[in-house]
Amino acid sequence: PPQRSPKIVGLILTAGLLLLARDARAQWEWSLGSFELLGQEISLELTDTFKYTFHIKDELGAHSSRVLGSNGQPMDVHRLDHQVFNTLDLSVSSGVFRLGARMDLNIFEGLASEKYCPGDPSWCDEEEEGRRYQNTFALERIFLSVSEDAFDVTLGDFYASIGKGMALSAVKMSELGQDNAIRGGKFVLHHGPVEFTLLGGTFNFLDVDEAEGWNAPWAAEPVLAGRLEYRIMDLVGVGAHAVLILRECGEWCNDNGSQFASQTRVDRDLVGGASVDMPDLLDGQLSFYGEVDLQQTIHEDGVLRGPGGEQRDGSDPRYKGIAAYAAASGALFDVNLTLEFKYYNGFRLGAPQAKAQPYEPLYHQPPTLEWIRANVTNNSSVAGTRARLDYSFGELGPVELTAFINYGYFENWDNDGDAPHNVHNPYGGVELDYLEGAGHADFTAGARREYDEHKELVKYQDTFFELNAEQLLVDNHSLKLSALVMLRKEFKDPDTEEWNEVELTLDYRFAPWMGLTFSYERKSDQEGRENYFGGGGGFYVNSGTYVEVWGGQNKPGIKCRNGACRYYPAFSGVKFILVGRI
After folding, report:
1. For residue 66, which of 74, 210, 445, 554 is within the disulfide window of CB 3.0 to 4.6 Å?
2. How crowded is residue 493: how many other Cβ atoms within 10 Å of its Cβ?
């Protein structure tokens, strides 16, 4: 591996410590505010985020530090000594104009040499091939926008979502470390009841995956999209849209959710759809939203293909790719009822499986309708519905109580027409406000069970219990407890693997200046029980300027949000964060 000079890290750490040594309040509350240039009032906002991580190495082969490879086996267990990420966000605005940019500095130091790559030695070459742990400095985002009453124009980088994310979803997902923007141009026209959106450019992912130091290999794939909306008497909105994506499939293109393509090709993904939105019916007592999208993937040689890249006969309805979604909610007295329905058939999601490779690009993200943290492995060919009932009991003495129940049932299938998997997802909970707003608590419990009809066995099963409670003590002192317990089961031919996970966090806050946090995580499986402890604190000058230090351990495992999942390795070390905003 290339040698990395420790002087760079030393200089950055020294600068950070010097900033901390000064009077933080006097240093960071200084504000440029606004000033005039050539008769124009100019506003400046600047935010710098500095993160330093020190990794404590585990012994070679330690269970807590293994990272699963594409074959499900442990791969490398080497850890870094030092890791530095620095992000500088700059925004300058004047009147209807705004100019912004983001610059990232990434430094990796002290890479250990131990490797552990059974069954898949190619993963041991990631660093040497320049895919991981490369020092970089890059202009990640830059944009210029103009906002008028009649139109908005953006040139450069921007986020975009069309419909419910089914037609197009290029967004930032902080919980999973994914950040996908479009670099190009976007034009939005507002004219009475009409709104027209036209955008085009190339996808622009962040260069470095902070979670594991990957240099994201995604190509700058072109995208062109448009949407027209018309609102009738402020009651009904109808819209139509179309999206074209040219996907460059090669070594890093996921063809069918588990294997990489063996040769480079270009796919044309075309999505067209329409929606109807009635958000305020019967004086706000009823609302409805519906959307249908058709997807077609065409190979560069003109062959029509399905969601996995396989050739499909035109008579096979599954080749087309369709996504239909509908939601309705109504309120009557103290009762709220929500109904949602989805039918997706061969509609490509992108990355439903969690892997140790870099996060895979998500261009479409249809709603899952399931528990937000559920590991949804198939949201491409699935049908089902869910219903949620909320009831407010009002004030019961010193307590204000709201309860809800939610039940979802779904069937998913693969492209070969095998017997479907049946998914049952019931859960419910209560919300409490007490002591005249000085305390709040919510509790949720439920389960998700996926049954494979072909093998006549339970494929996945999760039982979960979640509690969040916050209590004001005296003056500005408060405590907050967050707890999550998951009992998990997964069938892996020929055995069934069972394990339990626990996440506990206790936060103390002396608003608005100081905060302390303590965490405990536990993972129990056939290989034994492992406990992970952590803690830290922070000093907050204001909401945008603060210093935080955290040390300890985090358990490995899959983290999911709305159907997208990431595998995170175990962590043991210290994290230091300094955020300054002017």
Report:
1. 74
2. 7
Residues forming beta bridges with residue 244, ordered by sequence position: 224, 270
27 burial class (0-12, 13-18, 19+ CB within 10 angstroms)?
middle
10 Cβ neighbours under 8 A, 6+ residues apart: none
- Length of the chain in residues, anyone? 582
**Can you tell me whether residue 388 is helix, strand or coil?**
strand
Contact in structure between 62 and 74 (CB atoms under 8 Å): no
Distance separating alpha carbons of residues 261 and 253, to the nearest angstrom: 6
- Which tens digit of pLDDT belongs to each residue from 292-322? 999 887 765 545 454 455 555 443 433 578 9
The answer to whether 266 touches 248, Cβ cutoff 8 Å, is: yes
Contact 377, 353 (CB under 8 A): yes
What integer pLDDT is reported at residue 183 of this predicted model? 96
Reported as a single tens digit per residue, the pLDDT across 393-451 is 988 888 999 999 999 999 998 755 567 899 999 999 999 998 887 899 999 999 999 99
Output the pTM of the full model: 0.82
Tokens of 289: 């939203």
Query: In angstroms, rounded to a whole number, what is the distance separating the alpha carbons of residues 157 and 204?
Result: 8
Q: Which residues pair with 185 in a beta bridge?
A: 155, 200
- In this structure, how many other beta carbons lie within 10 angstroms of the beta carbon of residue 70? 17
- Separation of alpha carbons 537 and 515, rounded Å: 5
Give the separation between CA 429 and CA 503, rounded to whole angstroms: 19
Helix-, strand-, coil-residue percentages of the chain, each rounded to 5: 5, 60, 35
Half-sphere exposure of residue 399: CA atoms within 13 angstroms, side-chain side: 11
Q: Is 398 exposed, middle or buried (0-12, 13-18, 19+ CB in 10 A)?
A: exposed
The continuous run of DSSP H or E covering 80 comes out as none
**Type of residue found at 111:** L
C-alpha to C-alpha distance for 535 and 505, rounded to whole angstroms: 9
**DSSP 8-state class, residue 50:** E
Q: Which has more pLDDT, 102 or 262?
A: 102
- Give residue-wise pLDDT tens across range 366-401: 899 999 988 888 888 899 999 999 999 988 888 999
Contact 359, 178 (CB under 8 A): yes
Residue 6, pLDDT > 60, answer no
Contact between residue 257 and residue 248 where contact means Cβ atoms under 8 Å apart: no
Helix (H, G, I), strand (E, B) or coil at 286: strand
Measured CA to CA, the distance from residue 181 to residue 140 in angstroms comes to: 10
Element (H, E) at 57: none
Tokens linked to 35: 């000033």
| DSSP one-letter string for 417-438 | -PPPEEEEEEEEEEEEEETTTT
Q: How far apart are CA 345 and CA 124, in angstroms?
A: 38
Amino acid at 349: L
The yes-or-no verdict on residue 66 having pLDDT over 80 is: no
Q: Is the dihedral of CA 122, 125, 129, 135 positive or negative?
A: positive
